Each structure stands twice: as C-alpha cells, then as structure tokens.
Amino acid sequence: MFTGIVEELGEVVAVEDLGDSSRFRLRGPLVTEDAKHGDSIAVNGVCLTVVDTADGEFSADVMAETLHRSSLGALSAGSRVNLERPMALGGRLGGHLVQGHVDGTGTLVERIPGEHWEIVKVALPAALSRYVVEKGSITVDGVSLTVVDAADDYFTISLIPTTLALTTLGLKKAGDPVNLEVDVLAKYVERLLGRGSAYGAAAGDRTDLDEIKEMDR
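The structure assignment produced for this chain is given below.
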C-alpha cells in the first residue's frame, strides 16, 4: 500500500525485452537504501517487485498485463520516473490509500500556467469517469492529487511548485500518457451497492440496509 507521495525522481537505466514481459533496471538511491529482493516499489504509480538491488539501482520484471494496462511500455533508457516505497504501518498517511494497481491510462491534454501553480487537464477513459469526482482523490503517475474539475471525459488537477519540481508531472507535455489509479473506496462502494441491489431483488425488492445486514447474518 502506498500514499501517492513521491519520494524520489528516478531514472530508467535499461529495459530488456523478454518477449511477453520486460525487465527494467532503474536508478533510485533513496528508495533502494533499505530495499531487498521481494520488496515493492511504485514506479509511476505501478507496484513492482524488486528482483535485486546494487549501487543505488534495482531491477524489476514487468509482465505483459502491466505493460498493457499502464504506460510503462513506453519507457526507455533515460526516462524519468516517480518512485515511492510502500507506506510503513504507524506512519503518516500524507496522500490517500494507493494500491499501485493502475486502472488505465489517460492523456495529458493541456497545461495552464498560473502565478504559483499550474492547472493540468487530463483526458481519461469513459469507464473510469464515474469514479472521479470534484475534490476527490486520484493518482496520476503515482502522485496523489485532488481533482479540481471532473467531466465525463476529462479532469483537471492543480500542481504546486513542489510537485512540478520533484515529480515527472513537471516534465510531461500535451499528448503524453499518464497512469491513472482511481480511489479504491469508490470501487468498493459501487460493488457493495450492486450486491445490495441483488439482495433486494432476491428478497422482494427490499433494499433497506438493516434488512441487508440481517440477511448477511
């Protein structure tokens, strides 16, 4: 589990094509200082498993499913990436609960500079729009952000100088793909409401929550 608070701006050292998967070598002295085989590190919001570490670098295998669902397949040697280690139990939750399981990719549409910040417009797949709400949370390339405006096919975010300077979001330009992870709580609520409707139909359209709880007992 992650928080979406990027710890380090890392770099792809090498990408090895293994046919149905790829092995990435990445540089990140901070996130590797206590990493070991089997640990997790989020790379642009994608949870990857560490294969080995050495001299401030680590390698990770990226399966075909991950390459298909995320923008990692577009990375090459020299690409900059956002890196974050998993949150520690008992630590501060600075962003929101992030799983590192990308739901899809969006496209950066427009950057609107302000005096001390920047508004960024991102197009998103129609299947994800119902999970994005004004003032809600979303993860963009592993960065926990608050939604400013939410529409059916896009949303906007406001980036402060720190985010622009310390993450890849300051380097992205119009047309670039970004990894998106919506708030997992919204997906659970949707699933539970669907289950409640099914329970109601089975019980003669009784949808009262207390009745559903009784049926669960």
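Interim note for the steering committee: The two ends are 30 Å apart (CA to CA). Residues 196-209, 211-217 have pLDDT under 50 and may be disordered.
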